[in-house]
Batch of 4 targets.
Target 1
Amino acid sequence: MAGWLKANGIEEATYCPPKGYFVADENPEAFEQYEATFPAKEKKRLPGQLFYDGVMETDRIILRP
């Protein structure tokens, strides 16, 4: 909610991400080992997903970069 901090007497605040939030960036080797414990992922394109080749198109609109 916009203005909540000031309305509650807080003039300044700093966001600090939770510990472990950026674990893949902070310790990439350990993260790779952790990821390797999961089965390999298969890429799929399911019905209803858009194909993106720089242009997105539906029956009614065309989106271009």
Target 2
Amino acid sequence: MPVPESTLRNALRPENTLDALGPEFDALGERYSGKVRENFSKDGVRTIVVTDRVSAFDVVLGTIPFKGQVLNGLARYWFERTRERFPNHLLDVPDPQVCRAVECQPIPVEMVVRGYLTGVSQTAIWRAYERGDRSFCGHALPDGLVKHQRLPQNIVTPSTKAPKGQHDESVSKAELIERGLIDAARFDALERRCLDLFALGQAIARERGLLLVDTKYELGVRPDGEIVLIDEIHTPDSSRYWYAETYEQAMARGEDPQSMDKEYIRRWLVAQGFSGDGAPPTLPDELRIEAARRYIATYERLTGREFVPDARAPIPRLKANLGL
């Protein structure tokens, strides 16, 4: 059954949404703060707290009720579904918004895999195509494609990993190698493996009536030298999902496909005239609630399980579950 409206509205209250973590959490280890995740490293283990923060265009915008629980649960689901195809860093999940993982050395490149000509940001593949570009991150694109159309084949369009507050940059394989961020042999091997993983994700999503449109994979090197998936995989933050059953109708009408991910928020921001520069608009409560419903719907559609949120105040719960 759907999460009650009253539960979602109660979760809008600052004490019931997880935004910042106080200094007492530094007992978990050395802290690194990302846009959404708070990372703590200690004794070869990384404790990752997935907050309810939401970002778009590399800017943190506020919080969405239960977003952290959805992301953490979906990342766990996908890590378990794909570990035989591509190992990952996950050790355990001690709280709905926390995972413990093997400490890895991050590879400073995001492997972005795209299956469709879409996107609303100024750096999106559709924006480049609309401007007349017929090469994107080293990939030749044919004439005659339309917005949201499936690409002739899935492609990897890598991105640099920008620090919090800065913008990621889409680049070609050649540029990455020239900058010394990765060598050709490693890139080629990771490209093959990421395309294979994306195809698996698309097949699983399609079974659930969804189209996995694009995604990004973050990778790291374990102490034993093996390259593994880190951070998250195939979540609504790292991926774009459309409803398969309404895609063709939307394309025929020239409309945007019905989405289940953060694209809903991005489109609202663009409609307000914000695409990453200047101060972002405040997210209205109704938009935050609708975004929460979409995140929850994605979880339930992909996993086939009912989402049952832990509605307790997150800070006391985290302290109890993490022994703080």
Target 3
Amino acid sequence: MTEVFEYGVIVAFIYTFLTLSYLVIKTFSFGKKQLLSKPQGEIQKGVIYALGKGLLPWEKESASRNLPTYVAGVLYHSGIFLTILYTLFEVFSIVLVNWLLHFFQTFILIGFLCGLGLLIKRILKDSLRKISCPDDFVANILVDIFLLSAFLNTFYTGIKLIFFSVTILLLLYIPAGKIRHCFFFFYSRILFGIFFGRRGVLPHKPGRA
């Protein structure tokens, strides 16, 4: 029975990757806007900034004004990516040495707690709750359950089928819901860096507001 769910996780991974890739390719159907102005900067530097220094809180006004939320978000997403990696280890029956297992346990738990905290904040804070849609809550809850089931699985493999079931459900939901931003985030940051790097806006030059 476990093997069936392992294959299910693999198939779900493939489906999610192909679907997200199709969505990215589909964006090219809008055509490419012809840029007539002369480049004022370097595209490569813009992309490097967008994927590097540009992600730091002091480079983003909204993040610097909400530093605890920013840190929680970073830890949350780090926990998610590590949980996905842990899931692949489980699917392919790769045995983890003790220190690596403890590493996964620690960050998966931290990710879960941060995700739960962000969910509670969205529920309790009136300004956030008003701009939230059902998908915001479903996505957060589904990911939190994924993290929790993975964490419990590190201690008790008897829930592996539950863990794999949640994983499959999450993977199938990703292309349809807001969780797909985990894939489009990097794509959009690259486009952002290309556009503003070419214009010479990124990276910010000393003395420029």
Target 4
Amino acid sequence: MSERTTVLVIDDDPGIREYLETLAARQGYGVYTVEDGESALAELDQARPDIITLDAVLPGIDGLETLRRLKQRAPEIPVVMLSGHGQARTIVEAMRLGAADFLRKPFEVEELELAFSKALENRALEEEVRTLRGRVRSDVDGLLMGGDSPKMREVKEIIEQVADTDITVLVRGESGTGKEVVARALFQLGNRRSRPFVKVNCAALPSELLESELFGFEKGAFTGAQKRKLGKFEYANQGTIFLDEISEMAPGLQAKLLQVLQDGEFSRLGGESDVRVDARIIAATNRNLEEAVRKGEFREDLYYRLNVVTIQIPPLRDRIDAVPLLVEHFLRMYNEQYNKSVEKLSADTMQVLMDYHWPGNVRELENMIKRMVVLGNESTVLQEIGQREPMQANGSGLVTAGGAHASDEDLDLVALGADFANGGELDLKAISKRASQIAEKKVIERVLGQTRWNRKEAAERLQISYKALLYKMKENGLSEGR
């Protein structure tokens, strides 16, 4: 027992106070005693005990009123009520007010030891849950709520509102936006957090395997079924099941899932009886389900069953002000994981990240920061972004995603692609090398412009040697007068 674990004894009988002090001290607790409720409340201002024993009958403020005031001021401290009467009404009221346990005098030493042990164990569990909830909220805030987007504030509000319910939730958004993060936040902040969380990717398995994965099978249901197998729904009983990529589920399976949503039961493959299950369902998709319903690819009745509460996660490009916070979060996470010390990114790199379109959303950003931390430099990622920048066509010619007119190098790549589309014979390695050169040239030219063509400063920002920069400038035909 830790020496810091303390017990406050509240009893008007000097003999009981002395007896409890002796018992608690033998168990390794630090003990201090008071004789009434007023003294206990005053003592609470000076020090916070780990556990309190409280007599139900006290002079002045009685035991139940003292309990009520104690729980108002320090709800986290477990209180064990003691009484020589043990009337049912008193016990019920004490438990309603938040007492951790109720012992009748005289009690056995073992009873007190068990009451203390249970009360402290429950307190530790409650603190662990609070810590976990705080961590989950922090993850949600960091990964999803970064920036000041009204859409993300709405996402957070919905999570807070529905987490503690059993309502079915449909999470929608592009790939990489953080749909699983939302699902886990709903689980961890909900009332089923102590139960299983089971994830199933509906796009990862063919229909026949997915059915047995979700609903299990009986021995002999098919060739190779040597024994009964429980499905994911049974493992998620009393907990939460997360159906990712729900739109990829075959129509036959959709009907079976609808039965689970409507009736809370299903049958295993080869089974003759129904299995009842109580699992909260969270589904996610990156597809337009309404269009899938119109095309007959997704059941309309299932759509309405799933679409009770919808959480729509906007893409990262629509909340670009979240990028700095996300960068800080991922730097901290991967520095710790890989024992690195990349404190922050250069201002130029941050500007590139802020200007980027992020087709892969948060997942793409996370992977980029991970590579920066592992490799210890930013240039490779900047080159990659330069290669990925999509080009769009408009009436006046080709423009980049940022709106600037395409360069000769961009047009060169387009011409190569056109040759390929028309059946021309191309060297894929040559195309890849040319694309890399174009990206490298763009990055170097941008950094030189930002440093007012200070080559030494540009080399430092690009994390290459001064001589290497001069060589690359010559290779790419870059000069201050161009």
